[in-house]
Design goal:
Elements (H helix, E strand, L loop, with lengths): L9 H7 L4 H20 L6 H16 L10 H6 L10 H12 L5 H17 L5 H13 L15 H14 L6 H14 L2
Helix pairs in contact: 1-8, 3-5, 5-6, 6-7, 7-8, 8-9
Length: 191
């Protein structure tokens, strides 16, 4: 993989730049999948149509990757999850619960945390506590604000995404240079 697709969210492209080469394909698959689910479940669409599209994805993730249709590029990316793509099914359930349910996004937040933990496991990361802490902060915005231990190198994009999300949630404005330094610190040091 030389560069991420142009339709990937700019923040995801920045985070992906900090993934080691060996982890990029799996990270790209997760980010693209999350972006596709968000697009599928975007407000304004009929709930029944959202459910039908999510059901299609749920069915694909329940299958062996060798049975996937070749016409869907995202499924080709999910092959990088080496048969562990079923762990992403909770994201589909979370999006469905948020759109047609009344859980306020709680299930989706938990699914995002689980997806990042599954990615960490796929990438061979054994220190899961920092991953869970950062993923929970990213998903809910209510996590621990202390730096804590850094995440392992394959999970550095998570640290970058967390910094970028915090930037958006902050009330006060900070300088672009300070934001850049925060992103670089997260990407290089993992916190």
């Amino acid at each position: 993989m030389s560069s991420p697709p142009n339709d990937l969210d700019p923040q995801h492209r920045i985070a992906l730049a900090y993934a080691p080469k060996s982890a990029r394909a799996a990270w790209l698959a997760l980010l693209a999948f999350e972006q596709r689910m968000a697009d599928t479940a975007r407000p304004g669409r009929e709930p029944i149509m959202i459910q039908l599209r999510l059901a299609w994805w749920r069915d694909r993730l329940a299958e062996d990757g060798t049975n996937w249709p070749v016409s869907e590029p995202l499924l080709a990316q999910l092959v990088s999850w080496q048969g562990r793509h079923g762990a992403l099914g909770a994201l589909i359930d979370g999006w469905e619960a948020m759109i047609v349910g009344e859980d306020g996004g709680t299930q989706l937040c938990e699914a995002r945390v689980k997806a990042h933990l599954a990615l960490a496991d796929l990438l061979g990361v054994t220190a899961l506590e920092p991953v869970e802490r950062m993923a929970r902060d990213l998903a809910t915005g209510k996590g621990d604000v202390s730096p804590g231990p850094p995440v392992a190198r394959p999970m550095r994009p998570l640290a970058v995404l967390r910094v970028l999300a915090r930037r958006e949630r902050r009330d006060r404005r900070s300088s672009p240079f300070a934001d850049l330094l925060r992103v670089m610190r997260a990407g290089l040091l993992g916190f």
